[in-house]
Design brief:
about 120 residues, Trna Endonuclease, Chain: A, domain 1, five-stranded mixed beta sheet, endonuclease
Length: about 120
């Protein structure tokens, strides 16, 4: 992992949160290398004992600016609670209306879930 080009960007938070480092490393590389996000930065979320990733995902519509998204990585073996999600939201400034939780598995697959505050009607 130390020889990977993304390691210098992540090293401080990988050392600070070793239990969640694998998920952070996997999701960061998926977003930057596979999904081609831009303006990506790693954010410390001490209340959740992990880091989050903030960036802009590219849009096929060139007239529309890319939207800023926040992704909180975790592994499939972790337990997620409502209080954990609340801590993730409140740790971010400004308070976002939604975040994505990226759940990683040992086979390197990643599933992204969009989590909104309160009850939000899904788009039809």
């Amino acid at each position: 992992m130390q020889n990977h080009p993304s390691y210098p960007v992540l090293s401080q938070l990988l050392e600070k949160y070793p239990a969640t480092g694998g998920a952070l490393f996997q999701v960061y590389n998926d977003l930057t290398l596979a999904q081609k996000w831009i303006d990506v930065e790693v954010i410390d979320l001490p209340a959740c004992k992990r880091a989050a990733i903030k960036g802009k995902r590219p849009t096929p519509d060139t007239d529309r600016a890319p939207s800023i998204c926040i992704v909180v990585p975790c592994s499939l073996s972790e337990s997620i609670s409502a209080s954990w999600l609340r801590a993730a939201f409140t740790s971010l400034d400004p308070l976002p209306s939604e975040i994505y939780v990226a759940i990683t598995s040992e086979d390197t697959s990643t599933v992204y879930y969009k989590i909104s505050q309160g009850i939000v009607k899904p788009p039809v």
